[in-house]
Amino acid sequence: MATLPNQLDSITQRYGPHLTFNTGVRLATGVEPDKVVKTHCCFCGQQCGIQLKVKDNQVIGFEPWEDFPFNQGMLCPKGVKRYLQGAHPDRLTTALERDEKAAAGFRPLGYDTAIQRVASEIQRIQSTYGNEAFGILSGASLTIEKAYLMGKFARVALKTPNIDYNGRLCMVSAAAGNKKAFGIDRAANPWADMLSSEVIWIAGANVAECAPITTNYVWQARERGAKIIVVDPRITPIARTCDLFLPIKPGRDIALFNGILHLMIENDWLDHEFINNHSVGFDALAKHVKQWTPRHTAEATGITERAIRQAAEMWGQAKSSFLLHARGIEHHSHGVQNVLGAINIVLASGRIGRDGCGYATITGQGNGQGGREHGQKCDQLPGARDITNPEHRAYIAGVWGIDEKEMPGAGVDAYELIRKIERGEIKGLLSLCFNPVVSLPDNEYVARMLDKLEFYCVIDFFLNESAYHADIVLPGSLHEEDEGIVTQIEGRVIKINKAIDPPGEAKQDWRIIQDISKAMGRERGFTFTEPREILDELRVASKGGIADYSGITYEKIEAQGGVFWPCPDNDHKGTERLFEPNSWNPIAKGAGPFYFPDGKARFNVAPYTPPTEDTDDEYPLMLTTGRVVSQFLSGTQTRRIGPLVNQYPEPRIELHPQLAEKLGIKDGDWATAETRRGAITLQASVVTTIRPDTIFIPYHWPGRKSANRLTIAAQDPISKIPEYKVCAVKLRKSEAPTND
Ligand SMILES: Nc1nc2c(c(=O)[nH]1)N[C@H]1C(S)=C(S)[C@@H](COP(=O)(O)OP(=O)(O)OC[C@H]3O[C@@H](n4cnc5c(=O)[nH]c(N)nc54)[C@H](O)[C@@H]3O)O[C@H]1N2
Ligand SMILES: Nc1nc2c(c(=O)[nH]1)N[C@H]1C(S)=C(S)[C@@H](COP(=O)(O)OP(=O)(O)OC[C@H]3O[C@@H](n4cnc5c(=O)[nH]c(N)nc54)[C@H](O)[C@@H]3O)O[C@H]1N2
Ligand code: SF4
Ligand SMILES: [Mo]
C-alpha cells in the first residue's frame, strides 16, 4: 500500500478526471463543521471509509479517512459527491398518500395516520385473502440490523413466506455457486492477498468503474509483476491495462472455463495433492470437459484458439493466482454454472486459502454480503440458515419466541413475487430499499403488476419510480441518518455511524417497521429501542450458523478496524482468510478446511447452455447491460447529484464502428434498440471497445431511457437471477424521441 500516490497519479494520467480518485479534498471550505463522523460510503460493496463533516444537522462535506485499511482515504467520484444528496429538495420529509387530483399525484399525510393506514391495509388483505397475499421486497443497501428485522417482520409479524430482496438481482448466482463448491458464501480472501499473486483473472467485472478501489489492488499486484487476464465483451478501463484480453461473446463463460480446464488437464497443470486430498468430484468433471477442446471452445466463445491457449498457459503454470468475477458472468440463465466453472479452475490449480492464492466474487451493493446472510431471502433464516431445515427452524423460532409450526416456509424469488400479482396470489406489497420498476427485467410488465395491487407501500427517502405506483409512501432514512453494521466485499464487518437525524417526519427504517407492527397489534418482538439491541439479538440468532456473527460487537469493530466473519465468540478476532489448510469450521469439525462434513471442496460438472434468447435473423445482435462509473443502480440517488449527472447525463447505446457503418449510424445519432419486450431510442456512442455483434446500454435510468424495457425476464433455475447480460436485439438509426 506504500505506493498509493503513484497509483493515484497513474490512474489520473490514464483516464483523466473520469476515474480520478480524490483524496484530501476539503469541501465547503471556510465553514467549520460541528463534528466529523467516521463512517462508510453509502454506495457500493467496497464500503470505503469516509469522514462526513456535519454542521447544523446537515452533511456539508467530507474528509478522507486514511486509516481505514481497505481504501486508505481513496474514494471514487460517487464517494466524493455522496454528501450532496441529503440536501436535495426531493428528500421526503412527510408520508404521502396517493391523490389523483393533486398535481404530483400525492398529498402529504401525517406519519401516524399513514402508519395506521398501512397496518389496516395489511390486515384487510391478510384477513380477506390469507397471510401469503401480502409480500415484502427488501434491499441489500440496508444495514444488517434492518435486513434481519425485515426477515423477522415478514415471518413473525405478517406470517407470510413471501419476502425476497434486491440481492436476487445481484449476488445470488455467486452465492449458490459458492455454497455448492465451498459450503460457505463469502470472499475467500482479503484483498491484500491479491498483491502477491502471479496471475489475476477478472471475469465479467468492470473493475475500474464498478469497484474502483479494487483497481488499486490489481495495479499494485501488476507493479509487482502479476499478469492480468480480463474476460469481457467490452474493453473496459481495467482491460486497457491487462496482459491478455479475451473478448468473449456474452453468455459463454462456462464454455471458456471448461476449455481452460481441458488444457490444464491435457498439460497436467494440476495440483494433484490438493485434488486428491481436499476435493471430491474431479473425475466426473474431467470426463465432462474432454469435449471442450480449444477448437470447440473457440467456436462457442468467439475467442481465438490462440488466446484460449495463452490464457490456459498463464493460469495453468502460475504458482499463485487470484480469480475475481462479478455480474458479467453471474447475470445469466446459467449464472450458477458460470460461477462453478470459475471455481473449478481455481480448485484444479489448488491455489486457494493462502496469501497470494485466492478467489472472490465482487460484491455489488453496500451490504450485498451481509444483506444476503440474515434472513431477508425467501428461503433463508439468520446466520445463513435454511428455512426448510427443521433444526434451523427450531433454533430461530426459539430466538424469536414463537412456535416453530407458526413460522412460514420458503417463499418465492423477487420476480416470481411480481408474477404472483398477475395470478392474483399477491394483493398487497411493501417495498423497502428496492426500485423494481427500474431494476427488474421486462419492466413495463413490472409496472403494470404494481398497478394491479390492491395496496402498495414504499419506504424510501426519495420518491423513486416504483413509488409513483404506491398508495402510501413512508419517509425512510438515509445512510447517514442511522447506525448499524454492514459486511463489505472482503467479508469484513464494519460500522456505519450516524451523522445526522432524519429531517421532518422521516424516520429510521427500523422504527417505521416497528411502528407498523405496533399498529397491527403485533409489537411483540418489535420493541427495539436502538440498532445495538437488534444486533444483540442477531448475534444470538446467527450463533452456530455458517454466517456466525455472535462474537461481533460495535466495540470490536471499532477497535480492530472491522471484524471478518465467521466470528463465533467474544474472544475470537474474526476470520480474515477462509480455507487455510489447518483451519477449523463448525461443519467439518477439523476434517478439512471446506464447509462440508468431510472438509473437502466440491468440483461441479457445469454444462454449457446457450443464452435463453439467442440471435436470429430478426434480432441479429446481442444486448448486454450494466453500469457507468458515475451512476449507481436505479439512479434514485446519483441522478440527484449534479456533478455525477454531468459526468454521464444520459444513457447511450455503445456500438462498434463496423456495426455503426453497416447500420449507417454515426456517433451522437439517435438509434432505436428493439427486443421482443420493447424498444428504446437513445443516442449512439460509437466505440472500438465492444464486440461488433454486441451492443451495451447502462441501466441507471427510468421510463423511455430504461434498458430494462428491453431485457428478458429469463432466470437461472437455481439462483433465480435474471439474465440481464444477454438477449437478442435489433438496432436501427432513428429520430430524436419527441417526448421525455
Ligand atoms: N459505478 C457503479 N458502481 C457500482 C454499481 C453501480 O451501479 N455503479 N453497482 C454495484 C453493484 S450492485 C454491482 S452488482 C456491481 C456490478 O459490477 P460489475 O459486474 O463489474 O458491473 P456490470 O456493468 O454489471 O457488468 C460487468 C461487465 O460484464 C460484462 N459482460 C457482459 N456480459 C458478459 C458475459 O457474458 N461474460 C463476461 N465475461 N462479461 C460480460 C460487461 O461488458 C461489463 O463490463 O457494481 C457495484 N458498483
Ligand atoms: N438491465 C440491468 N438491470 C439490472 C442490473 C444490470 O446489470 N442490468 N443490475 C441488477 C443489480 S446487480 C442490482 S443490485 C439491482 C438493484 O436494484 P434496486 O433495488 O433498484 O436498487 P437501488 O437503485 O439501490 O434501489 C433501491 C431503492 O432503495 C433506496 N434506498 C437505498 N438505501 C436505502 C435505505 O437505507 N433505506 C431506504 N428506505 N431506502 C434506501 C434508494 O433510494 C432506491 O430508491 O439492479 C439490477 N438491475
Ligand atoms: S462507490 Fe464504492 S468505490 Fe466509490 S467511494 Fe463508494 S464504496 Fe468506495
Ligand atoms: Mo448488484
Which properties best describe this structure?
seven-stranded mixed beta sheet; alpha/beta; 23 helices; 28 strands; binds molybdenum atom; disordered N terminus; six-stranded mixed beta sheet; Dimethylsulfoxide Reductase, domain 2; binds iron/sulfur cluster; binds ligand MGD; Phosphorylase Kinase, domain 1; 740 residues; Rossmann fold
Structure, described:
- The protein is α/β, with parallel strands linked by helices and 740 residues long.
- It folds into four domains: 3-85, Phosphorylase Kinase, domain 1; 97-166 and 368-564, Rossmann fold (3-Layer(aba) Sandwich), CATH 3.40.50.740; 172-361, Dimethylsulfoxide Reductase, domain 2 (3-Layer(aba) Sandwich); 621-734, Barwin-like endoglucanases.
- The chain has 23 helices and 28 strands.
- It is globular, with a radius of gyration of 25 Å.
- The model is unreliable at 1-28 (pLDDT under 50).
- Molybdenum atom (MO) binds next to loops.
